[in-house]
Each structure stands twice: as C-alpha cells, then as structure tokens.
Amino acid sequence: MRLAVLLGGIVLWLMGAVAALAQEAWVQIEARPTLAEAEERARAYASLFPNVVGYSLDSGWYAIALGPYSRDAASVQLSLLRGEGLIPNDSYLAEADHFGSQFWPVGGAASAPAPVTEPAPEAVLPEVAEPEAETVLLAPIPDETPEEARASEAALTPETRKELQEALQWFGQYKGAIDGAFGAGTRRSMAAWQMSEGLEGTGILTTAQRGKLLDGFRTERDAIGLTPVSEEEAAIEITLPLSLVEFDRYQPPFAQYREMAGSGYRVLLISQPGDQARLSGLFDLMQTLEIVPVEGERQLNRNAFLLTGANAVSASYTMAELRGGFIKGFTLVWPVADAARAAKVLDAMKASFRPFGDHALDDSLGEPMAVSRGDLVAGLQVRKPIISRSGFYVDGTGRVATTPEVLKNCGRITIDGGIEMTVAAEDAAGGVAILAPASALAPLGVAALRQTTTASGGEIAVAGYSYPDTLTEPVLTFGTLADTKDLDGNAARERLQLKALEGDAGGPVIDATGRVIGMLLPRVAEEGRVLPDDVSFAADAGVILRALGSEATADAPQGAAPGAMAAEDIARIGRDMTVQVSCWE
C-alpha cells in the first residue's frame, strides 16, 4: 500500500509538471522556527517524496510542503498521505500567497522525480524537463465552499479540534471550554476570527483558514515557550514562558526566574509558611521592590493580595493567597512595549497556578546574601526613599505636620510607606510643613496641640522613626523641656534636653498630660557653634497652628486624663499619631 501511495505521488507530481497551469496547491506538512531545522526536515522528507519544497513564511518560520499540484490532485494526495500516516494529521492545503521565498531545493527550483531503478517496460515514466529556477507567479486557490469546509472539518482529530479552540482563545476570540466540540460559542469565535482577517464570517473554517490560524498560534506559542512546570521545592504547579525566562536561584520566599536573551521578562514564585500577619507583611514588602512599579492596583484582604503596576519601562502582576498555613503566589514582570504577548503569558499563568503538597520553600535553600535585607530582599533590589523623617496627624482628615527638610527634591511624598501626600502649607521660617492626603483618612490618633504656656523643667517625650530603615514602629525618646525659648530668645522655638536622632525630626513633642507642645526640628550645624548632643529644638504649637490656618485642633488628647499620664499611655498616644514621612525620586 505504501508503495502504491508513493507511486501515486510521483504520478501526480508528473501530471502537475506537465500541466504547469494547473500547479495551484501544495500540501504543507511541517513548519520550523529556524532555517537549519527546516532544511534538516526537508532533507529527511526528500528521501521519501520526490517533490519536497520549502518556503519562508511571513511569521518568520519555514514551511515544508509537497507540490505543487492541481487543486484536485492536492486534495487527493493530502487524503492518501494522511490516511497512510506518512505525513502529520494536521497537514493541510496551502495557497500560493501563503509562501515567501523558496529555500528548498537548494537553488530555488523543485527537484525532478528520483530515477526509478530497473523499471518494468510498462512502468517507464516519460522524461520531464526540470522547471527553471525563476519564481512562477501562481493564481490564488479558490477557497472551499461551506459544504466542503464542513466535510474537511469532519475528518479532524479530537486533538486538532481542541487545538483550534486553543488558537481561537489565544487570539482573544474564544472564552469557552477546550473540549473539541464546535458548538455555538466556537462557531461565533470562528466567524469573529474570519472577519478579523477580512474574510466572510461563515463560522466554518476552510482547510486553508485552519492552517493559517494554527500556523499563527503555533508560531507565537513556540516563541513564548509556554511549558507546564512543577516546582517541587516551592510546591507550585504553573505554566511558565520558558523561551523568555529561565530558572535562576532559590532565595526564600522566592524561586527566581531571570530573563533570557534580553526578553525583559522575570518571574518569581512565592512560597512560604504563614498566617494573616505574614501575608500582610509580604504585601508591604513586595511594594518596596523595584520590580513592582509604584503606580497600580493594591488589594489586601484576609486571605489574599493583589499588586499590579506599570511605569515607562516595565509592568508587573503579583498575587498571593493564604491556604492551609502556606502563602503561595507568583510575580510576572514584562516590558510595557510587549503588553499583548504578556497578556497571553499572564492568562496562562493564572489559569494554571496550583499550589500542592504540605510544604513551602525551605529557608536553607539558596546562597547566603552578602548584603543586608534592608538593601536586598531575596536578591531583589529594594526601592528606598531619598530621605525619611517623622510626622504626626493634626486633624481627623489625615493632615500631617512634618519638617520641610523631608520635602526637598521629591518626585512624590508618602506616609507609612504607601499613602500619597501633597504639600498643603509650608512655613519655612518656622520649620513646619503641612501635608494632606488625596482623600480623607481615619487616623488612629490625632495630636491635641497645647495652646497654653508649658512650664520649663517638665518631662517630655518625642515620638519618631529613629531608625527608618530598620524599625517599622516609632520610638519614644524621653527628655526635659529645658526652656520655652531657644538660645537666642526666640519664643517660637523651645529648647529640649533630649538626645534625638535624624529620623526623629518632624515628630511630636508630647508633655506629661499627653498634649503636643511642639514639633522636633532637625539638628542644623551652625558655623562656629557646636552644641552638646542632648540639646535639641522644637517649633512650638503656635507655629503649627498658624501653618494649619484657622482650623485648630482641640486642646485635649483622645482619652487623656486631667493630670500626668503613665509612660505607657503617652507611648500609645505617640504611636497612634506618629507617621513616617518619605521622599521618593
């Protein structure tokens, strides 16, 4: 039977060579991404078929085909060869305008049939002149009628039918199940794809249209390299674009995949034991990474979080969920210029993501880091502010008093790491600035600015972010109100006996009753004057009130007692009202 098929192919090829005007169709049997691979496959097929040809495709791939034939001869040959299993089941008829330049046979012309060894007299074949090397322009193949298309569609294998649905889904036309059943949804998708190609939307793909759809799908899919991955250490199953990224290293809580060949793509698989507190901490940490752009969606609930964002260069998507005592998720980073392809990668990753097992990444995996986690988190660059100082809430809408020192050369200003603020007022001479949120906040605590004179010698405390890159809570530093004016006699500045750090500047100065009597000013080196370390100054409450305008706060702290308060109560008041103010590029 195979011999009969081969002889039949030779006869059909000779018939096509004799009747050049009828050379209208090819049987496309393969496509390869590189010329070297295509030539190797063409050489292999040429040992079996005498009329193997190879052409480049618009997609950048290289097609291997048999022909040319007349339309009818090509259909017969396609059916015979697929039936015998000599060519792939997804082979199809191709049109003249489907191909570009010819690469096989070498020289650009189809080779003549191989000579037959000692043929019987009746089997002697007439000699046929070898076609010339120049390109022959062929008329387009008339497409199948809907009836013919249905007939060829009925012969498709279940795998090919599913692949067609996947291709329609890939190009955004189909959103149903991949089941190989061509129902109303699939038909509508086929019609939509046809119309997107400038074709009549019949909802029934012809053989050539199926070939074009699958060619485009396979070309894009293979260029991305979507591959199911079972990451045993992280206990995550997910489909990854392994033509764009490759495994780099483990550094818990991440399994990192770096970009390949300058693709601009990166992937993190997130895996760690945890609870709601650790989920919230991871949510905050991820926002400090350079790979997560500042602008974007931020969602955190009890059992999951979502972060998205984009800047002029890159975009990212991060999700994580808490299940059974483990936090699992992933991050995808891609170039903003490649948004269409990235959307397909992201869809594949989201659809395939599945945690498994009863473990997460072991903390002992990966190499020890040579730098502190303040500068590098699991090998990822951390976004750090230009400068951070302290501030405190001065009203119930979320306005904040701070030092103008923190506002210089800022692209944006935030409090507590992520809340965007703008400068509402600034008194450079008094050393106070007022920040306002874009929308009203609900602070835990608000400063009660003391409008009456405070006696010198009383105990005071300053709440501030003394160690902004290390501690995430304000520190309370205790001292004494040395004088109600500074060394030059300025009554708008109070002198404190207190050892403060740079990060404390902008923090509230709280008296023993829990009221705020001023705001700590930065230490400024004056020419020819070196002050002791325990000498600090504060802008008094009156300066803050003037910066606020006519809207002054009540002269009573929340839950305050009429007399002196316990140290732990003052600490609570200071902690609830104090924020970290950060300046970013």
Description:
- 24% of the residues lie in helices and 29% in strands.
- With 585 residues, it is of the alpha+beta class.
- It folds into four domains: 122 residues, no CATH class; 76 residues, no CATH class; 127 residues, Protein Transport Mog1p, Chain A; 201 residues, Thrombin, subunit H (Beta Barrel).
- A hairpin with a 3-residue loop joins strand 12 and strand 13.
- Helix 1 runs antiparallel to helix 3 and helix 5 packs across helix 7.
- The N terminus is likely disordered.
Record keyword descriptors for this entry:
585 residues; elongated; 11 helices; six-stranded antiparallel β-barrel; alpha+beta
Q: What percentage of amino acids are in beta strands? A: 25-35%
Rg (C-alpha, Å): 37 Å
CATH C-level class of the largest domain: Mainly Beta
Which shape, going by the Cα principal axes?
A: elongated
Tell me the number of helical segments per DSSP (H or I, 4 or more residues long). Answer: 11
Overall strand count? 29
By helix and strand content, what is the structural category?
A: alpha+beta
Strand order of the largest sheet: 8-9-10-14-13-12-11
Query: Can you tell me the CATH topology of the largest domain?
Result: Thrombin, subunit H
- Number of domain modules: 4
Mean pLDDT across all amino acids: 82
Q: What is the straight-line distance between the termini?
A: 75 Å
Largest sheet: 7 strands, antiparallel
Low-confidence stretches: 1-7, 10-22, 109-126, 130-141, 368-376, 553-561
Helix content percent band:
10-25%
CATH architecture of the largest domain: Beta Barrel
